[in-house]
Every structure is written in C-alpha cells, then in structure tokens.
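Hi all, posting the design record for the shared folder.

TITLE: backbone redesign
STEP: 1 of 1
STRUCTURE INPUT:
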C-alpha cells in the first residue's frame, strides 16, 4: 500500500497551511481535497476580498473576543500569532492592508491570491496534492488511525491531519465528514452552532421598524437562507453567536 509520513484531509486554509508546514519540516506529505480545486470556501470570504485576520497584535486582547474558545486558542496563537500571519504573506509577495475595525485583507483584495500563495507554499516544499479525490473513511489498525480509504484506494500514513472544516456552506465541500469520523471513533463532538449569520425574525413590527433605519438593512438573503427576510449587517451578524443557544421560538 502507498504510504506517506503525513496525510492532510481537506484543502481549505487549515489543510493547506498544515500540509505546507509539515512539508517545510521535511515530512513526506499528501494533501487530499475532494473538490477539483482547493479553497472553495476561502474564495467566498470577505465577499471575495478575504478578511484574513484582524490587526490586533496583542494575543490576549485578540483572543478575548473568542469567548470560551480562547482557552484552546491561546496555545496555537502563541506558536503562530497575528504578526506571523502578516509576515507569512508579506514574505511571499502578498502584504496585508488594514481597514476600519482593524480588519486585515490581502493588498490585492482577492481571496484567490491567498489561495495562490498557499498552493505555492505547498509546491515549494514538495507536498503532493490530489484534488477531486474523496476520503471515504479512516483505516484503523489495533486502535490507531493507520491510513485512509478514498474513492480511488487505500493509503497508509504515520500521521493524519483532519482539516475537513465545519458544516456551514456545505456546497463548498464542508459536509462535516471529519466530525462524523471522530464521532464514530468515540470522540465527543459538540453540536455546531451558527456564528456570524443574518438573524431571522418573525415579528412584523421588527421588520417595519428596520425600514425606518438605513442600517441595519432588511435584506433578502440568498442560499442557504432561501429568500427568508433577515437582518443582515455586521452588528446583528456579530451577535448571532452569543444568542445561538436561545430557543428559536423566542424570536
Ligand atoms: C460566505 C463566507 C464568508 C466568510 N468570510 C470570512 C472572512 O472574511 N474571514 C474569515 O476569517 N473567515 C471567513 N469565513 C469563514 C472561513 O471561510 C472558514 O473559517 C474557513 O474556510 C475554515 O477553513 P478550514 O480549512 O478549516 O475548512 P474549509 O474551508 O471548510 O475546508 C475544508 C475542506 O475539506 C474538504 N473536505 C471535506 N470532507 C472531505 C473529504 N471527505 N475528503 C476530501 N476533502 C474533504 C472540503 O471540500 C473543503 O475544501 C467565511 C465563510 C463563509 C461561508
């Protein structure tokens, strides 16, 4: 059976970065992505401009906006900080610019350029990529993950990195496969909750009230909200995470 040091499953930003870094450290790396090209969701980010990070260079202050997740994020951000992200892209010819609310974008304002930098990072470090190949399951040997089965065959690896993303915008390929595999293996997987999404309200008076304001606007949202009226602007979107645990009937 074919064998690699590291197999990375998923060619989103997390998978591309993980594969590039493992290859940079000299590992024999294979990245598998089921779409015909990597970064389908990344392409949509920031309206196609890619709001890549936030120019808050104090890690403690930066993470104070992440609620309970801050505890987990402190370790990775002390290994690779916001400043490291700025340096990583600047060194590869794509400096970041900072807009209001410290939002950072690539200078070219094109998410495709971020994908291009990440793909070049992999190529320069000789990580192998296979696009258009779907991982079907993890292969387990004596209680350890020993490899993967794809639609094209079995591949062994010393280490497997799951970077299959969450469950939003499934049409981009993020169908939650990795979470299902982990659940099947007996890991605890918390239910995903919406974050930075438009708020839907059923009360007519809220909609009437909103019409008298310029912002937030009452918009018609496309897929996946299927033409449901929703409040869509940064403020309600930013408060969608804290209230996502409330029962939907309250609104
Ligand atoms: C409309 C929109 C706008 C956004 N804007 C921003 C923004 O401006 N700034 C920001 O920071 N974030 C933004 N985000 C969030 C950001 O896109 C995600 O946080 C990011 O893409 C997550 O990266 P990831 O690599 O973890 O997962 P993903 O990008 O979801 O990548 C996972 C990859 O794994 C692949 N995969 C899944 N299962 C398999 C399998 N079985 N076999 C092979 N491959 C598989 C998928 O095809 C996918 O390509 C936005 C998201 C959306 C939907």
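Okay, here is what came back for every position:
SEQUENCE:
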């Amino acid at each position: 059976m074919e064998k690699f040091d590291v197999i990375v499953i998923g060619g989103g930003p997390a998978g591309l970065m993980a594969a590039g870094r493992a290859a940079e450290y000299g590992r024999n790396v294979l990245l598998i992505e089921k779409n015909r090209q990597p970064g389908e969701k990344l392409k949509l980010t920031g309206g196609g401009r890619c709001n890549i990070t936030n120019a808050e260079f104090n890690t403690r202050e930066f993470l104070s906006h992440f609620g309970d997740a801050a505890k987990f994020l402190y370790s990775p951000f002390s290994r690779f900080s916001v400043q490291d992200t700025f340096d990583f892209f600047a060194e590869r010819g794509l400096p970041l610019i900072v807009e209001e609310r410290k939002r950072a974008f690539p200078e070219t304002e094109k998410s495709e350029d971020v994908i291009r930098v990440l793909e070049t990072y992999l190529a320069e470090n000789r990580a192998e990529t296979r696009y258009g190949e779907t991982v079907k399951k993890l292969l387990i040997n004596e209680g350890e993950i020993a490899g993967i089965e794809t639609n094209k065959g079995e591949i062994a690896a010393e280490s497997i990195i799951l970077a299959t993303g969450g469950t939003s915008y499934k049409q981009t390929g993020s169908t939650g496969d990795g979470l299902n595999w982990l659940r099947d293996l007996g890991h605890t997987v918390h239910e995903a909750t919406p974050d930075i999404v438009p708020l839907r309200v059923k009360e007519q008076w809220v909609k009437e009230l909103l019409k008298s304001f310029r912002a937030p606007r009452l918009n018609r949202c496309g897929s996946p909200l299927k033409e449901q009226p929703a409040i869509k602007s940064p403020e309600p979107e930013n408060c969608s995470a804290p209230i996502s645990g409330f029962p939907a009937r309250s609104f």
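COMMENT: The CA atoms of residues 55 and 100 lie 10 Å apart.
Let me know if anyone wants the other runs.
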